[in-house]
From TrEMBL:
Protein name: NTP pyrophosphohydrolase
InterPro entries listed in its UniProt record: NUDIX_hydrolase-like_dom_sf (IPR015797), NUDIX_hydrolase_CS (IPR020084), NUDIX_hydrolase_dom (IPR000086)
Keywords carried by this UniProt record: Hydrolase
Domain Nudix hydrolase: 31-164
GO molecular function, one term: hydrolase activity
Species assigned in the record: Coprobacter secundus subsp. similis
Pfam families: NUDIX
């Protein structure tokens, strides 16, 4: 039996104004809900990306932000960031800085993305239920593959916001 996940419903400033289910957030209703992203750089300036599992309901099989996940109802943004980092990549013991926020809208959802960055040189062990594979990419390598339908639209938009 599946557990029902509840997400906060928020206004455009990030203030919680209610709660709803994952299903309601992803059914085209465009209910604004918060998510966290973590961009993981190594000491060489390369960016770690994950390839999303084919079982994902959104953008399966595409390369994406190192960590990306939903904030649960009642959970602090930073707590969600560190929880998702442990769950998806097995990483911990790092300091993350908020980089930028923006609203991302697709055909089925609307998210307030809280995007963080960190430099991490430790061991990364992707959760193979969530992530098919992961690796560090050079910035020029990413640029060469933009607009070729291998990255998620969300990642491509976020990459355009980065001052690299």
């Amino acid at each position: 039996m599946r557990t029902i996940e509840y997400f906060p419903v928020i206004d455009e400033n990030g203030n919680t104004i209610g709660k709803t289910t994952r299903y309601e957030c992803h059914n085209g209703s465009k209910i604004l809900h918060p998510v966290v992203h973590l961009h993981v750089f190594n000491e060489k300036g390369e960016l770690f990306l994950q390839k999303r599992s084919e079982q994902k309901d959104i953008q399966p099989g595409k390369w994406d932000t190192a960590v990306g996940g939903h904030v649960n109802y009642g959970e602090k943004i930073e707590d969600a960031l560190y929880r998702e980092s442990r769950e998806e990549l097995g990483i911990f013991g790092f300091e993350a800085q908020l980089w930028f926020r923006y609203i991302f809208e697709s055909d089925i959802e609307r998210e307030l993305v809280n995007s963080y960055r960190t430099i991490y040189n430790g061991v990364i062990i992707p959760d193979l239920d969530e992530v098919t594979e992961g690796r560090f990419w050079t910035i020029s390598e990413i640029k060469n593959f933009l607009k070729r339908d291998i990255f998620t639209p969300n990642f491509e938009y976020e990459f355009s916001l980065m001052k690299l």
